[in-house]
């Protein structure tokens, strides 16, 4: 349903309007990162406008006692002691103003917003505004992780890039958030340089690349791969030090920080679980229904109420070993509606997926955790380890898509499962490795690579069968391939969909051009490559795990060079670059060298298998 809304929204012509523009628009903010705009074309009542918008968008809507109660399956709820409801805001020309009361039977007189946020003295305001309608406030665009932007990319991108900025404070492995005139990202810390081994979060002007503010926080495990989340005028960062930091997103002022304990199950100095273990603190957090959700490296799942004053723990779930407790790494929880309730799904490095109601953390299946992969006896990449449940995507058909692998940095084998969200039953298994896919109304799109012990061929919906390639594929919800792109060496980061186009960033560096260092645009209907461009500057170690962020004709992406790029229809200046300005080389201590070695091993396995 949610993906259907996104696609429907894209066929409605929306243009940025100034505060003086007489046109009236309605913003629907789902409170989880997804936003939709609807242009008011008649002078009906507010209720009729909402109903018209809901009908055009395929969005269920419910009213009760003169109040908006439910929209798109997102319904008034209570988490802990906090009630989250649909709220009405009006635009006063410069900012949103919360209206405690409203009359659905009046005619709309100004641009307004309906947003799903908690009842609080410190009211959360929508991030999208009439002057900056498109935002990207969370990892993969929403708590459903569908990878869909309701904005648009450049039609004729030019090189050199419009601007780039390079840091000496670490790798850019987090997703890049966008709100208003700013983008936000972290750097991972140059942990072989004692003077700059701490990570940072940066706010930069998205039109110029100029720094607005930066915030330094303590180093932890030495690499930061989580993505922050924007909630109103706050930005919240999870760190490998075990901290959650909340900052004012306009000034960078620290508002509070919360320290998560690290207490994994240990007996006689050894971990009681079987899977890989990381000391990386909280996962990427998501915000949904008025609360913050995340897992931690010691195998717990948390729900917190957050405002500018404090973080308040609402509930914590600690699975037993029998329920599949294991380490959660950077992958964010995924939240979607199941039988009228919001439900959280998260996977771990013991091969389990957990499912629980966000209201209180209670299970929805017969067991809290469900085992999806156990390769303990034949895991070539990570001997003795069961493998991991990695990224998860909520689909619009009541299913979830789950990517399982051997848990290596560059996996040799694994598979992809389509699961009934309500029961946990596996309905479809594709024996291929996938990057985190984009979920659309009529199917999903992902970068696919052959699994060493997987299938040789994929079945297409026309009945044909083709060899599994290293390519981007679209699948229908029966698991049949719809189209196949040309081959690409490796796309590890999630793909992004915007306005009929799929965007993917190469994992390999520009040093390996033309098989690395590029961002590629693909027609989402046909799989045809629209363009493929090399991003500079780059270095031998500038691997990228950064999902492209698409906002109003610009693409933002980062890599291990410590670089952030802005690619658009505007041509930047030609510049020479010196690889010495990049981070101090870690040599073979840097994970990318291990990744390269494993990737070569993958190629050897494939060569032996197919030749």
Number of helices: 3
Number of domain units: 2
| Silhouette | globular
Biggest β-sheet: count, sense, barrel?
A: 6 strands, mixed
Low-confidence stretches: 1-22, 579-611
CATH architecture of the largest domain: 7 Propeller
Per CATH, what is the topology of the largest domain? Methylamine Dehydrogenase, Chain H
Mean pLDDT over all positions: 89
The amount of helix comes to under 10%
The radius of gyration over CA amounts to 23 Å
Q: Bin the strand percentage.
A: 35-45%
- CATH level 4 superfamily of the largest domain: YVTN repeat-like/Quinoprotein amine dehydrogenase
| Helix-strand makeup class | mainly beta
CATH C-level of the largest domain:
Mainly Beta
Count of distinct strands: 47
Q: Gap between N and C termini, in Å? A: 44 Å
Explain what you see.
This protein starts with a helix and ends with a helix. Strands 1, 2, 6, 7, 8 and 9 form a six-stranded mixed beta sheet that branches. The longest helix has 20 residues, at 591-610. With 611 residues, the protein is mainly β. The relative contact order is 0.12. It folds into two domains: 2-133, Ferric Hydroxamate Uptake Protein, Chain A, domain 1 (Beta Complex), CATH 2.170.130.30; 148-610, YVTN repeat-like/Quinoprotein amine dehydrogenase (Methylamine Dehydrogenase, Chain H, 7 Propeller), CATH 2.130.10. Mean pLDDT is 89; it is low at 1-22 and 579-611.
